[in-house]
Every structure is written in C-alpha cells, then in structure tokens.
Amino acid sequence: MPTTSKVKAIPLRLSEDDARLLRERAGKAGLSMNAYARRALVGLNGGAEATCAPSIEGADDTPLMAPPVPFPPAFRKTFRWAWEDGPDALVNAGRHVLLRGIQGGGKTQWALGTAQRLGRPFYTFTCHAGVTSETVEGGYMPFVSGGQVIVRAVDGLLTSAIRQAAIPPGAVLNVEEITRMDGDLQGRFLSALDPKRGVFDVVYRRGAVPVPDGFLCLATGNPVGQEFKGVGDIDNALLRRFAVFDVPDPTEAELTTFAKTLALPKDVRDPLVKTAATSYEKYRSGETDNVVSPGDMAMFADSLAGGAPERTAFFAVIANKFCNRETPDDARKYREGMWEDYTGRKPVVVPVPEGGAA
Ligand SMILES: Nc1ncnc2c1ncn2[C@@H]1O[C@H](COP(=O)(O)OP(=O)(O)OP(=O)(O)O)[C@@H](O)[C@H]1O
Ligand SMILES: [Mg+2]
Q: In degrees rounded to 5, what are phi and psi of residue 61?
C-alpha cells in the first residue's frame, strides 16, 4: 500500500528474527513487509488509519507471494480442474470469487480450505429467508441482563468480517447459496464488495468502515435449481463484483481416481462413476434426478462404511439403483415415507416462556 503524504513514515530496524517472522507473516497474507506492518497498526487502531507507518530498513513494497498451503490431497490431485489454476489464481489476484457448479462439487470445501490456507478467520452464512439486514449488517438486539431487557448494537457478519479483515492476515466472508439471497439484501453488499475497496456504510451505526485489502468474499451458488433462481438471476451490479468461476466437468478417468480415494466396493464404484460422469451435463440442462456429484459419492461411501450419522431416502435410492444393497426394511420405510423416524430420534419440545421470549 503506498504511503500517502499525510502518513508519516517512521524508520524501523528489525532484528534478524523479527524480520524473518514479519517476512513469513507478510508472505502468508500476500503483502509486502511494510504493508503488513502498516496493516497491523491499522488493526491495533481499531480499523482507523494511523497517522504514521513503519518503514522497515531493507524492505521494499513488493508484495511477497503467499506460500502455497496445500488443500487436502483428494482435492489437489483428483480432478483436472486443479484448484490452484482456477479459483485460487483469482483469489491471488485479489478478486472476490463466486464459484458456481453442481451440488456436492466441492465449492464449500474450497471456500473453507482457502480460508484455512490463508490462515484467515472464516465468517459464513447460507442465504435463506431468515437472513436479514441485521444478520448481514447488524442492528439493535434485545438481551436479558440482570432481569431486565437491554438493547445493544450488534454487528452483523459482513460488518464483523470487514472489521476483522483490517487485522492481518485478513478475513474471509463465505456467502453460501448466493442465488437464494433476497433481492433487497443484494444491495447491502454493493459498497462492501466494490473492487476499489472503498468504505462500507454501516447504516445502523450511522458510520462507515474502510474495506481493507484483506477482506475476501467467497460465494457459492448453483447454476440451476428447481424453484430457486440460478446465478444468472443475481443482480448484475452484484455479479460484476465477483470473478465468477464455473467448476469444470471432471472426466470419467478423473472421477475414477477420485472414487478410488473412497471406501467403495468395486461393484458399486464403477456404476457410480459412470453416472457421475454424465451428471454435470444433466444437471446443467436442469435435470436433478439421477445426478451424482463427487460429494454424493463421498457421502455414499461414508454411509456404506457406517460412518454417516444417518441414512437418508436419497441413499436408499442410490443403494437400490446401483448396489441392490437395500434391505427390505429400507424399501418399506422409503415407500411408506417413514424416513423421519428412521434414526429413531424423538422430537424435542422447547417450552416457550410465558409472555414470549425476550
Ligand atoms: N474435487 C473434489 N475432491 C475431493 N473431494 C470432493 C471434491 N468435490 C467434492 N468432494 C467431496 O464432496 C463433499 C461435499 O463438497 P461441498 O460441500 O464442498 O460441495 P458444494 O459444491 O458446496 O455442494 P452444495 O452445492 O450442495 O453446497 C466434500 O466434503 C468432499 O468430500
Ligand atoms: Mg456448498
């Protein structure tokens, strides 16, 4: 970050150990040593710009490349669309990324993996009707304290992530299923995601927070979806703030390699891979039946191995279709629509206090 004329540069000489540590951290954040030190100062200053900035002896303003922290091996090697070449390159170029693709295609795992790789705190929410401007921006919330109801200002996830991002190595905000975001709420993101990293107007506090370079938004969405809107229906103003990355189709050979990392018997593996290989095309054309994604394969393997917490009707369909492993009891329960009882869980009744909850 160039030092503006108003900011006084304070020369700083570091010990060898401190310099090594700073280089390492700046590298992880993809910043120059000076920019990192300056950002740390801004963070300590509660997000406000400092009037002075350290100028470290022997360091220049060239950003250091983040050392690649590998994704889990299955993600790195299984598919041709190696993440490093695709969405990672966009993140490294400083773009917010919207990943779109088949359900169970690894989008969420990638977002989480990216935050871990960058060592950044991870804020996440899934878009649905209950997500409001309070969830996103913040608002005044009631709390019970000492027998009284008090009202406090509480920042929402977007505001919190932007504030946190001022402290190196920054922060990641993961917006899941962005295609389901309410139209009015989409506007709330426009200033926060401005490519020029301006200020985010926190209306409920009547203030503004600078959006630091360390703020990264990773969104996921499905290109098509039954009654839900597809990515194409997102407001253009919001869409243009993202680099949109389509998860490419893996080949059958790549899916076979991936399937081999899973605990699947061979007679199950081959038909699953065949179906998965044709699923991407089916999915894009709007067909959602008989679509098997890598995530489905992984969950299915888990359930065969007894590792999944519960089996679902979906697994029963796959089991029936590919392996003939369905038990007569499975078939009966599926037919009779008794799957809610299948795990034997009893409904939990939460009593509502008289007069309603505060
Ligand atoms: N490329 C891949 N390499 C290895 N595992 C994968 C890959 N893609 C998906 N998986 C497996 O699928 C699981 C589910 O992936 P994830 O939840 O990230 O999918 P998603 O695209 O976010 O799905 P949805 O659209 O339903 O939210 C992962 O935990 C992982 O086990
Ligand atoms: Mg997901």
A: -95, 15
Assess whether 98 and 202 both reside in one domain.
yes
CATH of the domain at 82: 3.40.50.300
Which residues, including other chains, have CB under 8 Å from residue 199's CB and lie 6 or more apart?
A: 191, 208, 209, 210, 211
Looking at residue 357, its amino acid is A
For ligand 1, atom 13, which residue shows the shortest CA distance? 295
Check if the beta carbon of residue 46 is closer than 8 Å to that of residue 90: no
| Span from the CA of 243 to the centroid of ligand 1 (angstroms) | 20
Ligand nearest to the backbone CA of 294: 1
Domain count, the chain: 3
Task: Give the model confidence (pLDDT) of 310-334 as tens digits.
Answer: 444 444 445 544 444 445 555 555 4
Pocket lining: 36 vs ligand 1, CB cutoff 6 Å:
no
Site to substitute for ligand 1 among 99, 109, 128, most atoms within 8 A of C-beta = 109
- Please give the residue range of the domain that contains residue 149: 73-246
Residue 44 in this model has a pLDDT that exceeds 60: no
